[in-house]
Design brief:
single chain, mainly beta, 4-stranded antiparallel β-sheet, 6% helix, 42% strand
Length: 300
């Protein structure tokens, strides 16, 4: 009798454990946004969101910026030809003060803008290419992130192999990296960059398929592998990292460098963001913007 009870208990525990290890389920929609009549997405690069419920899509055509609510309602568009160089529009993020930051890989500039498109700061020289030792010019900058004190970091990664640090008013501070390679502190296509709750830089070293971690003075701390090729990065306030991998068609959700979930068969996730409800958004440069909601969450 005791043996039978023990066997039953073991079976129950195995079943419970099996269910506990099942991956989370997600619903994916590419019809969540209400585009204006007669409008198509066109080629798309990046997406970001803010605490006020806005979702911003950066397009590689004109107008360059579409603004939506998280429910998909179209709010406005802006960015006529001249602000961005069409296909050069690349990375976009919102800082804690509500300013929009964007990079252009053909104009070689980084903009800080208001949400209606007014440029309040520009770094880089339009149309001028700078090497790994340049203090004021870039070679196809991919991304930018802003620290709590206003300093910002440019992922200057298509032509160069570095991260460049500036003060909040655009004054050059230092270069992190600057050599192409596979060693710690070297890069091969710096494509994305975020800052965690400890103030550390998480740098998407795309071709090397790793995320390198530095302090804000450029000291190498560690690296994470096994998260895919980091095309797009997004990190939450509690350090949940989302890694979009356009080569693998996945978004990997990780904590402290360890995968928690992998969402597959997504096309080519080039850029990733997460709104206040936990809904995930991704852009596919071929002209798709998808919204991904975990089963049972409040995101719609």
């Amino acid at each position: 009798m005791k043996a039978m009870c023990l066997t039953g208990l073991v079976v129950a525990l195995v079943v419970i454990a099996a269910h506990a290890q099942l991956p989370a389920t997600f619903s994916v929609s590419d019809q969540w946004a209400q585009l204006p009549a007669g409008t198509e997405w066109g080629p798309i690069s990046a997406i970001t969101s803010d605490a006020k419920g806005s979702v911003v899509v950066l397009r590689r055509t004109f107008p360059s910026v579409f603004l939506f609510t998280t429910d998909g309602e179209f709010v406005k568009s802006w960015g006529s030809e001249g602000l961005f160089n069409g296909s050069g529009a690349h990375g976009v993020r919102v800082d804690r003060d509500g300013f929009l930051w964007a990079t252009d890989t053909l104009f070689n500039v980084i903009y800080k803008m208001t949400m209606d498109g007014t440029v309040v700061l520009q770094v880089g020289k339009r149309g001028v290419t700078g090497g790994n030792d340049s203090r004021d010019a870039f070679d196809r900058p991919a991304d930018v992130v802003v620290a709590a004190n206003g300093d910002f970091f440019v992922a200057d990664g298509y032509g160069n192999s570095r991260v460049v640090k500036f003060s909040k008013d655009g004054r050059f501070i230092k270069i992190i990296g600057g050599e192409k390679g596979i060693k710690p502190g070297q890069f091969d296509l710096v494509h994305s960059i975020v800052i965690d709750s400890k103030g550390r830089l998480l740098v998407g070293d795309r071709t090397n398929a790793r995320v390198q971690i530095f302090d804000q003075d450029g000291k190498f701390i560690e690296q994470w592998i096994g998260l895919g090729q980091p095309y797009g990065l997004y990190i939450t306030s509690d350090d949940i990292l989302y890694v979009g991998d356009a080569a693998g068609g996945t978004i990997t959700i990780a904590k402290d460098g360890k995968p928690l979930d992998v969402i597959r068969d997504l096309g080519r996730p080039h850029w990733v963001t997460v709104d206040a409800t936990g809904a995930i958004y991704m852009t596919d440069v071929r002209g798709f913007v998808k919204k991904i909601v975990r089963a049972g969450s409040v995101g719609r």
